[in-house]
């Protein structure tokens, strides 16, 4: 598995902190647009983490259990990202119609 760099970890951490501040701003200010922006910001950060995890697993060399390598597990990243964005989209739609 590819080890994440310190810069990658700093970027992910700052992105999550920004998303948390946006959520707080959405609740304190009562702005639904800021809340939606916060949800998409956190979804983007989680999507990056998920894609990184699946990609780093997919580039591992073949082993005894996987004679042809781990290439196909790389498809789990886009599928997981699609599910994540669908969930966030559902939360946004429910929140906007309340």
UniProtKB/TrEMBL annotation:
InterPro entries: Cation_efflux_TM, Cation_efflux_TMD_sf. Residues 10-95 form the Cation efflux protein transmembrane domain. The chain crosses the membrane at residues 6-27, 34-55, 75-97. Keywords: Membrane, Transmembrane, Transmembrane helix. It is a multi-pass membrane protein. The keyword Metal-binding does not apply. The keyword Transmembrane helix applies. Pfam families: Cation_efflux. It is found in: Membrane. One of its GO terms (molecular function) is monoatomic cation transmembrane transporter activity. One of its GO terms (cellular component) is membrane. This is Cation transporter.
């Amino acid at each position: 598995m590819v080890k994440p760099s310190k810069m990658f970890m700093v970027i992910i951490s700052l992105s999550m902190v920004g998303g948390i501040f946006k959520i707080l701003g959405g609740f304190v200010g009562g702005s639904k647009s800021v809340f939606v922006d916060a949800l998409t910001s956190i979804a983007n950060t989680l999507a990056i983490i998920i894609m990184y995890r699946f990609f780093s697993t997919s580039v591992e060399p073949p082993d005894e259990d996987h004679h042809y390598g781990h290439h196909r597990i790389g498809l789990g990243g886009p599928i997981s990202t699609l599910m994540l964005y669908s969930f966030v989209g559902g939360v946004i739609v429910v929140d906007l119609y309340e």
